[in-house]
Amino acid sequence: MTILFDGIASGMLLFLISSGLSVTLGLMGIINLAHGAFAMLGGYVCVVALDRYGIPFPVAVLMATLSAAAAGVALERLVYRRLYGAGQLDQVLFSIGLIFVSMALARWLFGPQPQPIRLPGWLQGQVQLPWIEIGVYRAFLIVLGLVVAVTLHRAVGVTRFGARLRAAVDRPAVARGLGIDVDRVFVVAFAIGSALAGLGGAVGVELLGLDPSFPLRYLVYFLIVVVVGGSGSFEGSLVASVLIGIFDVAGKYYVPQVGSFIIYTVMVVMLIVRPQGLFGRPSP
Amino acid sequence: MTGVVSPMAAPAALRGAGAWKPAELLFWTLPVIGWFAFPENLPLLTQIAITALFALSLDLVLGVAGMVTLGHAAFFGVGAYAAGMLPAYLGIGDPLLGLVAAAAAAALAGALTSPLMLRGSGLSQLMVSVGINAMLYEAANKATEVTGGVDGLPGVENTPLFGMWSFDLYGRTAYVYAVVVLLLLFWMARRVVRSPFGVSLRGIRLNAARMPALGVPVNRRLAVVWTLAAAYAGVAGALLTQTTQFVSINVLGFDRSAEVLLILILGGAGHLYGALVGAVAYMSIHHLLADIDPEFWQFWIGLIFIVVVLFARDGALGAAARIRDLIRNLILGRGASR
């Protein structure tokens, strides 16, 4: 039962980070392998704010989210926008380059060692329910994940901005003709994607750890979520994240000698059986 | 390539194109010059030759056939481990047998994974390649009794080449060995690319939808070239094992898959020579940077990725492209048209 709960919690954390990738990769169609770099940025901002300046945790998380968003906007304006029409290969190479640069910068600024985080008192400890003992931090991740999931679902599915974004992605020329400022929509969407990465990276330091190799180490996980969940589907990403979280935690608990192998296998099998993902629309 | 019968006579472009141009012969004097110019740096030159072979293997699938993969290190790793396990567990130290075994193992891995790769396209294809690479890495990481896990597989002892030349401390044998293998496999790749089979691959890259109308079994062709490239990558991995006498888990690393992609793009995809030029350029840059700045070289490598994509990809802008064109003009005696 605890394993199930931990699995759901780590799945939710995975969702928090990957939901941003669902926006940039899934919706906007940029193969942004550097997504983890934005999450790492969020993580470092949060740790530095907490440890060095003693800023309260919620504010530190907010700062992490905003700085990742700012980095996202800057990079979108400067470089990513040039790549919208470019081939896959260019996007792949570019974002790998960004990963390397971010890793080198992180190592230079903070050293290669993992960064510890001191969670505030109210996130530590356990709560004893009648049938299960749960960690407060993990419960917090689950709640936060659900809040983000619902918000995103509504933001993209219901609001005017969501409609504009979907229009801008599907038919940029027509969207422009209808008076939608496609450029701005893309900047905002990219900022949201990066912000979510920063948020996930900040709250996830405790569970995932934080060191300069972060963007590469978890890259495959983030991609799996989006690919298994189906491009641009937040429900899909949520289900995929939770499933992967449970599989991963259970797999590492019951058959530690196999490790992450299960997850990669699940992904490859999934791609073979349903290339469009669990909830994805078949590609047009 | 055997088994491919062209219904029509090969066009003139195919006939007579097989002759080696003087500039090509000139290019292949470079390894000889390297031997005399850098006698202390032969291990590095050996690494360059191995990297060139690996990039050449990627060029077959990506440059020629147009399949984007981000998991090519999978086959490099299979070859490296195969060549390492043969002497380490079976006591078979003959290097050439090792190469054959590595090529066979990697080709088998390629044949097994090709249906997976051909199932999807675009992003899902890319992801499958990443996934296969990650699976193999994790398998090698966890199967510590067989592979040594993160500690690597040490003590790979090879017997002398042809029973005559042993692998010496200065890496002389290793260098000549690697260069000769590279040259032979390059010669073969050159023939393959110029064969009707190779031409059909280029057709698939340019317009996969039209090729079936010309009677080309697209998926079968891609599966064959995928398997062939896997074997090439396996040989490259085996060379690394044999010349360093060690297998590290890094042979399967994601970095390696990404790096080889950059090397090929840096040199120019689809020309075979691009892979070689890219390897020389990249490895030299890497070596210099790591010398100058051992802490921070990754930053510069990353920056090269970014600059290449942003400037060197679209036209003559960017130093990389200019140098590449210059070199290509010199080597091939014609302008880089693509």
Main pleated sheet of chain B: none
How far apart are the termini of chain B? 26 Å
Structure summary, number of beta strands of chain A: 2
Global outline of chain B: globular
Q: What is the gyration radius of chain A calculated from CA atoms?
A: 18 Å
Oligomer: heterodimer
Tell me the count of domains of chain A: 1
The proportion of strand residues of chain B reads under 5%
Query: If you consult CATH, what is the topology of chain A?
Result: ABC transporter involved in vitamin B12 uptake, BtuC
Protein name (chain B): Branched-chain amino acid ABC transporter permease
Pfam family, one (chain B): BPD_transp_2
Organism (chain B): Azospirillum oleiclasticum
Membrane topology (chain B): Multi-pass membrane protein
Short overview:
The complex is a heterodimer of chains A (284) and B (338). With 284 residues, chain A is an all-alpha fold. Chain A has helices at 2-27, 35-53, 57-78, 88-110, 136-157, 160-170, 172-177, 182-203, 205-208, 214-217, 219-229, 234-254, 261-273, and strands spanning 126-128, 133-135.
Task: Label this structure with key terms.
heterodimer, A: 284 residues, mainly alpha, ABC transporter involved in vitamin B12 uptake, BtuC, two-stranded antiparallel sheet, 13 helices, 2 strands, globular, B: 338 residues, 14 helices, 68% helix, transmembrane helix (chain A), cell membrane (chain A), Branched-chain amino acid ABC transporter permease (chain A), transport (chain A), membrane (chain A)
